[in-house]
Structure formats: C-alpha cells, structure tokens
Amino acid sequence: MAGPTPLPSILEITPYKGGEAPKNGQKLSSNENPLGFSPDVRAALERASVHLETYPDGHATALREAIAGTYGLDAGRIVCAAGSDEIFALLGRAYLSPGDNIVQSRHGFLVYSLIAQQAGAKVISAPETDLRADVDAILDSVTDRTRIVFLANPNNPTGTYLPSDEVRRLHSGLREDILLVLDGAYAEYVRRNDYSCGFELAGEAPNVVITRTFSKVHGLAALRLGWAFGPAAVIDVINRVRGPFNVSALAQAAGIAAIGDTAFVNASVDHNTGELARLCSGLAGKGRDIAPSVCNFLLIRFQGGPPAAARADDFLRERGLYLRRLEAYGLPDSLRLSVGTRQANTAVLEAFEAIDDRMPA
C-alpha cells in the first residue's frame, strides 16, 4: 500500500551532513569556538532554567534590544530565530515558489540550495574567481525567475570575502524585487578596512537582509540562535511565517549574556587572528595551496587532487584530527580546517610535517 507522497523536489534533497564529531580526538570540522563560551552565559542559563514550565517571550524582546544596542540598530527591524539556518528557511517559505530560482556563488553554503529545493525552486551557482564570489558572474546568472541572491560574506567554506564596494555594486545591479541575503556568520572575525557586514545597506535598501549567528564567535552552536536585520516589510513577513515561540528562553538568556561579554568576543577574535596566521605559515608546504581566509577556518587545496586530499584526511584521522571533507561543496581536492586550540593546531602542524616527510624530495 502506497503511503503519502511528498513533493518531488523533496526527494531530490541530499540531507545536510555536519562536521564529524569523533568520540576521541580533535574535532576541527565545524568551525566552532575553541575557547568555548562566555562564563556569563553559564550564569544566565542557570537563572533562566528556574522556570522551564513557562513559554519564552515570543518576540525575543530583550534579546533584540541587546542586539540593537550593541550594533546601533533598530530593534523593530530585528528578528531572532533558531540559528540563521531558520532565517534562510523562513525566507524561502515566504519568497520562493516552484519554478523560481536562487543565485549563489559556486562554493556557497550548502543550506541555501536546500532551502531552494524545499520550495521546488532551482539553484543557480555562479562561477567564482580564485575561490571568491564574482559579482559580474552572479549578475549574469540572474534570470526573470530569480527571487533571492544568497551571498555568504565572508564565505564558508572558502574563507574569502567581498569588499563593501563590491557588495554595493552587486546590490545596485539587482532588480528591486530580488532579495539580497548577506550571510555574516563569520563577520566578527574580519579585520579588514574594506569589509562591511552590510548593516548600512540593509538599513537603507528595501531588499537587503543581513543574517548573523551566535554559533561561531559567541560559542553557542548547541543552543541554535541567530538573527536578521533588514527592511521593516521583510522583517514583518518573517514574523508572519515563523513559529510563535521559535527561540527558547534559554537561548534568549544566553544570547543576551553572550553579546554583552565583549571581553570574551575580543579574546576569541585575538586567539583566532594569531592562530590563523600560525597555521597559514606552517601549512604552506609541499603540494598544498592555502586559500586566504578571514574566518576561523582555512581551506587547504591539494595539488595532487582528490586522491591527495583523501590520503591526507586518512592520515590525519589516524592521529585523531578530524577536518571537513568538501566533496559536497564541489571541492574534492580540499579539506577545511577549523582553527582550534593552540594545542590542537600544533598537532595539525606536526601532522602535516609528517605528511611532508613522506613525500619525495
């Protein structure tokens, strides 16, 4: 007997697979904060856990006000969600129909394509230049059925970014009925004068939304907490399609504490800056190319192609070091390395030295 039949596009979806979490060894596959999370969060969670029998504030009012105060934004134009992934899903639910399409860069975050497939929409991947989003290629990929352009800036898994003037050029080339979603999951780590996460653009344009997450620099990946800032009309639409209590009371309390602990954020960024430079220098070895990253991870490309990447991954796993394979991103010749603790990073460098020693002179 046949059961219920889902939409055809659903059966074409390959479920998202996160970075492997080993029982033993170092997990360096999910770009998590090696410093953990703010001690203020632990105290906030203890206080919030006293009344688990009550529903959370469905508008996340205090959290939105804390975010607004930190970044100088209008709290009324902020919406919170269970990770920025939920924001993407809500935008897909509200703005995509079967036959529409989204445009993303060739190696954009996998979740964007999943959102399109769930709506029966097509995914158009624009070519990149040197692992960097190409504005002209994105604009050339837009069709009359394009409804959303997703741009992770900086991008996962490449670690590259577009300067603010290029983002503005991208926006100026889009029709007003196309929503430009700027995913700033790693924005806190960027220390470049020509970079902007896009708050100003989202504040003035009717079709730009910025998404952010507490999973990375704040170290709250387990709680699933993200937010978006954008035009009042778009935020109103998101509020109409989201669940009434989509962010738990614990996540809200943790977010307020995390965003208020600037010392922890600064320590996390400082650790990443120093260790990223150390890894970049130490990994530039035989048969490898290191993509220039402004994030808390590195893309390592093997000149020997997919077989070399696979051999390196096997060798690293034997040493208890778990990086991210990137076949799903169209980068089978690469591994993505999260910046870990100093101890873990040293182990990675030593492992690659051993790999180099095995290579012929």
Task: Describe the structure in your own words.
The chain has helices spanning 8-11, 39-48, 61-71, 84-95, 110-118, 135-141, 164-172, 199-204, 232-241, 249-260, 262-283, 306-318, 342-358, and strands at residues 26-27, 78-81, 101-105, 122-126, 128-129, 132-133, 146-152, 179-183, 208-213, 226-229, 288-290, 297-302, 321-322, 324-325, 334-338. With 361 residues, the chain is of the alpha/beta class. The protein has a seven-stranded mixed beta sheet, sandwiched between helices. A four-stranded antiparallel beta sheet has the order 11-12-15-14, covered by helices on one side. Strands 1-13 form a two-stranded parallel ribbon. Helix 5 links the parallel strand 3 and strand 4. It folds into two domains: 22-36 and 263-358, Alpha-Beta Complex (Aspartate Aminotransferase, domain 1), CATH 3.90.1150.10; 39-260, 3-Layer(aba) Sandwich (Aspartate Aminotransferase, domain 2). It is 39% helix and 17% strand. The protein has 13 helices and 15 strands.
